[in-house]
């Protein structure tokens, strides 16, 4: 049923109504053609002309009694009277035709119904006619003056028609998207059945008179009029009773809703139901001239508005009329005033000593009706109740509490909850105020501060520690500023300071250096000593040429320049800095398209067995052949790829290419067992839920044995989101793939992590492969080699460029190494030639180690200088 209802909701309302109308019409027509067509009708001496019946039906339908349910209006009339009479004196075709013609005239002339509603009512009338005739012909004799059997059949026919009509009306209202009517169906049937019973009784009396003497029919005029007036009186008394009940309920709302806002919403919802209105609104006028009026609204089928400040111009348009009014009045807004209000009633809310506010009821829901003088009087009573309840409910204290909550919400909206500093919105407002009142001597200056290496703290120690660090950093920032300076947290680990300074920026530089000095001192957070620096950018306003956003952006650009220059320093904004940032963004946009254009290439650097000099593997490194810049180094575009997310498709492509190439090098390596290939992973790749499945697929497609693939990652990548990482690494190792830690010893890892993370290889960073004659700088390399031996891990040294470094590493017992001493990163074709030469030398008579290393160095290099191999 839920799926059916959801499917129906997607169908337009008019389509639903027309579909139901066509279905009812088809059923009625089918019954007529199959059962009633050709029936002779009752055997009567007096034949009633069908136009007379049509006229009687039209008159009866024009004088209706309406009962209202929100938007819907249900009408009751004397229409059963001519309908029952016609059943006894017309054949089926004449009878149905008379009912349709009379009903159509009444609906078009009297109610001016739209085509869709008119069509529904006419097919419903036809269905009721054929159902009534079938019941009458089935049970009545119809062979002379009516008797008990005929009377009973007529009563059954009208009652069945009444129930069926109520069901169809409830159905079409529900299908059209109105409030579901089936809960109201018993009340509709009960009232309709009473009306039908009375009308049928009078109709049967008229039938009997027509059989006896048609000239006596006028005697029924007075009873019919009395019945019609009785219907109207009943409905009127019913509505009065409902309104009295609603007024009684409204007087209890403030007793059961101690909070002012909830009481007002309850009152307005109650008022909407009372007046069958779309909108109910209360405006509370301010007690002080500098305050705003507060408006609370309740919409039919809409979200309420609670205590919303009203613009002075909107409040004045209506309040000027309310202040001079002594009673409620009808309200028709001027063009452009109060959008959504078509016609309404307004009543002042007057206390004992002053005007409290106004109550507005607008837009009648019930189709074809409007507000009346009775509604105005009822509104006045309701408004008096509300005004008295507001005064007795300590309106002043409630409004004061609302004002306090409003200020609290405003404070929360403009301040950072973690550090209690102003947030970006408030900071930009303060900058805009200073810019609007800028003197020629003292200029607004913005300092943009970013913590250095804060991400590492979050990744290794967790976000709770990171949040505490940010709070302590904010306190430290406050301590170096004056009271008139404005400090703010912009988001993440970014802060900003607004101060005034001369054009020489002496004070700004002084404050910036004090901040840097303050942040050089380690933070003590949850028993741990954390050291983070700060990079600052400074931007000074130029008279009349910048907005607050532009000034903050300039300071941000300067901060980025300071960070690129080595961190923990200050940079003052220069226009050329912005140009560099724009160029960097342009490079980022080109990078996102580089893979599709075929501009990326995988280079390979051999990894050598340091004792034998035999290549045992390669490291896959990506390069970008830019169409205008030439060969772009990875240090320039890999950080961009990680920031923009382009690292995911690039990394997946490098992994596929490297595995396919390594599979082709199966004949090389020690004893022809094939070369291993090392591929670097970024944190984003390892975080992908499908990474292990993708890895399995790549090895299956390329045919590379798992033991020949090594996935290399830095300590920061491994220790990011440790629980997920451990599970992911275990799944990788179960495939038979080996794990290597790159640049071991340069991150924030501890030996405890090596117990949790199962790895196979440690790579000594080039920082620890120092000059051959420096004993002190080799201590760390020796410690890493010793640690690897103890844990049973293989060791690879990076950045080997001199023969002396090679001898040192051999002496320490390091197994493998890579660097420019052996070969630079090169294309697959160049590395293939190198491997073929190396394999041929091993097949030839033995050569010296010096000759072997020389042949390796003969590989042509395409990247100038001694830059470190960068990785994906």
Approximate shape = elongated
The stretches of 5 or more residues where confidence is low (pLDDT under 50) are 67-73, 847-872
* Percentage of residues in strands: 15-25%
Largest sheet: 8 strands, mixed, barrel
Q: How many E strands? A: 24
Average predicted confidence as pLDDT: 78
Q: What portion of residues is helical?
A: 40-55%
Rg from Cα: 45 Å
What does this structure look like?
It is a single chain. With 872 residues, this protein is an alpha/beta fold. It has 30 helices and 24 strands. The strands form five sheets. The chain has an eight-stranded mixed β-barrel, surrounded by four helices. A six-stranded antiparallel sheet has the order 5-4-3-8-7-6, with helices on both faces. Helix 9 runs antiparallel to helix 10, helix 9 runs parallel beside helix 12 and helix 10 packs antiparallel against helix 12. It is elongated, with a radius of gyration of 45 Å. Mean pLDDT is 78; it is low at 67-73 and 847-872.
Short structural description:
By secondary structure, this protein is α/β, with parallel strands linked by helices. The two termini are 54 Å apart.
Keywords for this structure?
30 helices; six-stranded antiparallel beta sheet; 24 strands; disordered C terminus; 872 residues; 16% strand; single chain; eight-stranded mixed β-barrel; alpha/beta
Blueprint of the fold:
Layout: H1 2-9, H2 13-36, H3 50-62, E1 65-69, E2 72-76, H4 80-87, H5 92-110, H6 115-139, H7 148-175, H8 185-212, H9 221-256, H10 260-275, E3 277-284, E4 293-299, E5 305-310, H11 312-324, E6 329-331, E7 344-350, E8 355-364, H12 373-392, H13 395-414, H14 424-436, E9 443-451, H15 454-461, H16 463-479, E10 486-491, E11 494-501, H17 506-520, E12 523-525, E13 528-530, E14 534-540, H18 548-564, E15 570-572, H19 575-594, E16 600-609, E17 615-626, E18 630-632, H20 634-644, H21 647-664, E19 676-680, H22 683-687, H23 691-702, E20 709-714, H24 715-718, H25 722-734, E21 738-744, H26 751-756, E22 761-764, H27 779-791, E23 794-797, H28 803-812, E24 816-817, H29 828-843, H30 849-857
Helix pairs in contact: 2-6, 3-4, 3-5, 4-8, 5-6, 6-7, 7-8, 8-9, 9-10, 9-12, 10-12, 14-18, 15-16, 18-19, 19-20, 21-23
């Amino acid at each position: 049923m839920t799926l059916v209802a959801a499917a129906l909701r997607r169908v337009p309302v008019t389509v639903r109504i027309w579909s139901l109308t066509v279905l009812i019409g088809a059923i009625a027509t089918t019954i007529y053609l199959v059962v009633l067509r050709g029936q002779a009708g009752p055997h009567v001496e007096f034949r009633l002309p069908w136009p007379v019946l049509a006229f009687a039906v039209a008159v009866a339908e024009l004088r209706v009694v309406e009962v209202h349910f929100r938007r819907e209006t249900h009408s009751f009339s004397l229409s059963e009277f001519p309908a029952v009479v016609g059943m006894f004196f017309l054949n089926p075709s004449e009878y149905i035709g008379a009912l349709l013609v009379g009903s159509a005239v009444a609906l078009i002339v009297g109610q001016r119904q739209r085509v869709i509603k008119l069509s529904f009512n006419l097919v419903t009338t036809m269905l009721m006619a054929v159902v009534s005739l079938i019941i009458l012909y089935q049970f009545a004799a119809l062979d002379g003056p009516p008797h008990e059997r005929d009377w009973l059949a007529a009563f059954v026919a009208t009652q069945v028609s009444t129930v069926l009509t109520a069901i169809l009306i409830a159905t079409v209202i529900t299908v059209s998207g109105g409030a579901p009517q089936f809960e109201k169906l018993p009340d509709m049937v009960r009232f309709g059945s009473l009306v039908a019973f009375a009308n049928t009784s009078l109709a049967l009396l008229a039938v009997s008179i027509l059989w006896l003497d048609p000239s006596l029919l006028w005697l029924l005029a007075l009873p019919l009029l009395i019945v019609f007036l009785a219907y109207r009186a009943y409905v009127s008394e019913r509505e009065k009773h409902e309104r009295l009940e609603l007024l009684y309920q409204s007087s209890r709302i403030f007793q059961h809703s101690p909070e002012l806002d909830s009481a007002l919403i309850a009152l307005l919802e109650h008022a909407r139901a009372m007046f069958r209105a779309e909108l109910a609104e209360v405006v509370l006028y301010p007690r002080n001239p500098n305050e705003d009026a507060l408006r609370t609204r309740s919409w039919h089928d809409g979200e309420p508005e609670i205590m919303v400040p009203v613009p002075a111009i909107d409040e004045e348009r209506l309040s000027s009329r309310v202040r001079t009014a002594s009673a409620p009045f009808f309200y028709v807004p001027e063009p452009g005033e109060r959008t959504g209000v078509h016609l309404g009633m307004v009543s002042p809310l007057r206390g004992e000593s002053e005007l409290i506010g106004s109550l507005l009821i607008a837009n009648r829901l019930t189709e074809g009706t409007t507000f009346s003088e009775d509604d105005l009087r009822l509104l006045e009573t309701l408004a008096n109740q509300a005004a008295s309840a507001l005064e007795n409910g300590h309106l002043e204290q409630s409004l004061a509490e609302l004002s306090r909550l409003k200020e609290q919400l405003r404070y929360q909206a403009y301040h950072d909850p973690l550090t209690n500093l102003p947030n970006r919105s408030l900071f930009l407002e303060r900058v805009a105020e200073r810019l609007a009142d800028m003197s020629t001597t003292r200029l607004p200056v913005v300092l943009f501060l970013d913590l250095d290496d804060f991400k590492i703290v979050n990744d290794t120690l967790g976000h709770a520690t990171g949040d505490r660090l940010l709070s302590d950093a904010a306190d430290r920032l406050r301590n170096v500023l004056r009271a008139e300076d404005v400090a703010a947290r912009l988001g993440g680990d970014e802060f900003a300071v607004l101060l005034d300074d001369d054009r020489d920026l002496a004070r700004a530089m002084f404050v910036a250096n004090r901040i840097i000095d303050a942040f050089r001192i380690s933070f003590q957070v949850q028993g741990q000593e954390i050291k983070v620096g700060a990079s600052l950018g400074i931007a000074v306003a130029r008279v009349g040429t910048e907005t607050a956003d532009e000034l903050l952006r300039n300071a941000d650009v300067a901060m980025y320049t300071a960070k690129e220059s080595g961190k923990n320093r200050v940079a003052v904004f220069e226009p050329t800095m912005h140009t560099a940032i724009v160029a960097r963004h342009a490079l980022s946009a080109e990078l996102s398209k580089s893979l599709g254009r075929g501009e990326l290439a995988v280079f390979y650097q051999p990894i050598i067995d340091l004792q034998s000099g035999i290549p045992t593997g390669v490291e896959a490194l990506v390069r970008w052949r830019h169409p205008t810049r030439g060969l772009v180094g990875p240090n320039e575009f890999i950080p961009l790829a990680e920031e923009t997310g382009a690292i995911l498709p690039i990394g997946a492509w490098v992994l596929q290419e490297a595995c396919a190439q390594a599979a082709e090098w199966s004949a090389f390596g020690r004893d022809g067992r094939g070369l291993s290939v090392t591929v670097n992973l970024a944190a984003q790749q390892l975080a992908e839920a499908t990474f292990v499945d993708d890895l399995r697929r790549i090895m299956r497609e390329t045919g590379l044995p798992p033991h020949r693939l090594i996935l290399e990652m830095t300590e920061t990548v491994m220790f990011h989101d440790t629980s997920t990482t451990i599970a992911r690494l275990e799944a990788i190792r179960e495939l038979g793939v080996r794990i290597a830690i790159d640049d071991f010893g340069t991150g924030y890892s501890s030996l405890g992590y090596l117990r949790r993370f199962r790895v196979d290889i440690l790579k000594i960073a080039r920082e620890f492969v120092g000059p051959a004659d420096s004993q002190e700088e080799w201590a760390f390399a020796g410690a890493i080699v010793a640690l690897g031996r103890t844990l049973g891990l293989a060791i690879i040294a990076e950045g080997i460029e001199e023969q002396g470094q090679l001898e040192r590493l051999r002496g320490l017992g390091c197994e493998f190494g890579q660097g420019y001493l052996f070969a630079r990163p090169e294309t697959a074709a160049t590395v293939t030639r190198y491997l073929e030469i190396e394999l041929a030398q091993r097949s030839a008579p033995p050569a010296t180690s010096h000759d072997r290393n020389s042949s390796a160095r003969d590989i042509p290099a395409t990247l100038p200088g001694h830059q470190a191999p960068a990785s994906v």
